[in-house]
Q: What sequence folds into this?
């Protein structure tokens, strides 16, 4: 396991140096080996390392019947924590449902599909979608939906059969996920057509033609008497970066059916968004501070503040009160430990690196010395950027006093350092280094003061410092 971790780190370091063809071969090898040689955890770790490159290169992925089966509902997949989430499907349910299905499918039909899949040529590099899926999928989706719908009907009418089904699948949550899979499989073709109308995910702002395509697709499902048309709404929300933008669209559909009793399109959308928000908040509350950077914490606080605003705006905050409270406490803790913790040493270290740097001609290796100063400055600035991003929304997590106090302390320390520098300039201590070196030191302090306290706070230091430098000899 240690060897694998070491190899993955090596790949990660050289990720964008590897030729596209090698990335494609490596991806195919990992995915083919997943069920035979590698454990799922090891394969997922390897694919996780490659993911930034996969997004850019888009190599052809290893295609199996199981992947084709899952394609219609892949947008709805989440990593579940044991509870069933409305209109979402847990990844943990994929294998047991597929195993349940494959044990009941006609073996000759399966072999025919496998032969067709082997004969289909692999797609070219860089395609957003695998053209083999819409060619080979419809038959599998139709057969699977019909078979599994029949199994659900038996379970609904026979308690003993339901118990056996739950036992074989591995739990009631998996059975509930199976029911959602069937609902989506029955809409597979209309959903595939709608995907082609939408932008490649994640979809930002919906354009008017896309909104019209959504409305027309939904009307088509209603006209065809689809059993659960609401899952078209789920697909749209899952593909959006901001699912809340869909609420006015779905509210505008009125009181039409979603297939679920008492669920209008607007209620369906809110139920799904509520579940997504609770999952996000739950993940935040479980985050290990030691595994995230200061920038990551700032991102999480910003995302939390935006989400909280939307929940309040749409009257959904009360339903997630417990999750909001837990996330708030964890974010406040992470801000204190990851953003505020040790920040004075980090920021003042960045300033001191410039103020105490020896002239280049005196350094044993000028390039190494220059890089060390640059790194210290960059690290300090990045921490201040994270602090300021948190400061804008600190009130949402009850950290405003801690953040304001830290900004005040940093301002005092930088101003004191700047005053000491000006005193050294006036006393002639920097005469040997010259005016340009003095300016470099002054601007380092000014830069950090401006980032921490704003341009107005830096203006006096700049005025006094430049006046002192102007009086230096030479």
A:
């Amino acid at each position: 396991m240690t060897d694998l971790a070491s190899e993955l780190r090596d790949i990660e370091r050289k990720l964008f140096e590897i030729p596209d063809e090698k990335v494609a071969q490596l991806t195919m090898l990992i995915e083919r080996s997943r069920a035979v040689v590698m454990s799922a955890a090891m394969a997922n770790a390897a694919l996780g390392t490659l993911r930034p490159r996969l997004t850019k290169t888009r190599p052809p992925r290893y295609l199996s019947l199981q992947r084709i089966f899952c394609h219609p509902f892949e947008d709805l997949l989440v990593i579940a924590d044991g509870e069933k989430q409305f209109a979402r499907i847990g990844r943990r349910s994929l294998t047991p449902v597929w195993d349940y299905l494959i044990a009941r499918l006609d073996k000759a039909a399966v072999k025919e599909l496998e032969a067709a899949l082997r004969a289909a040529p692999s797609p070219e590099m860089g395609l957003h979608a695998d053209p083999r899926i819409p060619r080979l999928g419809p038959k599998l989706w139709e057969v699977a939906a019909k078979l599994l719908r029949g199994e659900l009907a038996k379970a609904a009418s026979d308690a003993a059969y339901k118990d056996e089904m739950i036992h074989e699948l591995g739990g009631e949550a998996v059975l509930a996920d199976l029911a959602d899979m069937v609902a989506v499989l029955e809409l597979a073709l209309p959903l595939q057509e709608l995907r082609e109308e939408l932008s490649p995910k994640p979809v930002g702002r919906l354009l008017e033609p896309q909104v019209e395509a959504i409305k027309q697709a939904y009307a088509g499902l209603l006209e065809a008497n689809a059993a659960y048309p609401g899952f078209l709404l789920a697909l749209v929300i899952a593909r959006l970066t901001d699912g809340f933008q869909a609420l006015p669209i779905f509210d505008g559909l009125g009181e039409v059916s979603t297939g679920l009793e008492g669920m209008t399109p607007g209620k369906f959308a809110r139920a799904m968004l509520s579940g997504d928000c609770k999952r996000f908040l739950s993940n935040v509350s479980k985050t290990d501070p030691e595994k995230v950077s200061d920038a990551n914490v700032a991102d999480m606080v910003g995302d939390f503040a935006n989400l909280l605003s939307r929940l309040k705006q749409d009257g959904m905050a009360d339903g997630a009160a417990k999750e909001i409270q837990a996330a708030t406490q964890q974010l406040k803790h992470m801000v204190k430990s990851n953003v505020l913790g040790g920040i004075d040493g980090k920021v003042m270290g960045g300033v001191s690196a410039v103020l105490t740097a020896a002239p280049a001609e005196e350094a044993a290796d000028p390039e190494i010395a220059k890089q060390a100063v640059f790194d210290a400055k960059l690290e300090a600035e990045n921490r201040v950027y994270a602090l300021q991003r948190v400061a804008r929304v600190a009130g949402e997590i009850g950290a405003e006093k801690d953040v304001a106090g830290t900004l005040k302390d940093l301002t005092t320390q930088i101003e004191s350092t700047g005053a000491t520098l000006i005193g050294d300039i006036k006393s002639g201590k920097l005469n040997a280094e010259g005016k340009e070196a003095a300016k470099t030191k002054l601007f380092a302090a000014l830069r950090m003061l401006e980032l921490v306290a704003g341009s107005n706070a830096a203006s006096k230091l700049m005025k006094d410092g430049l006046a002192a430098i102007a009086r230096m000899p030479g």
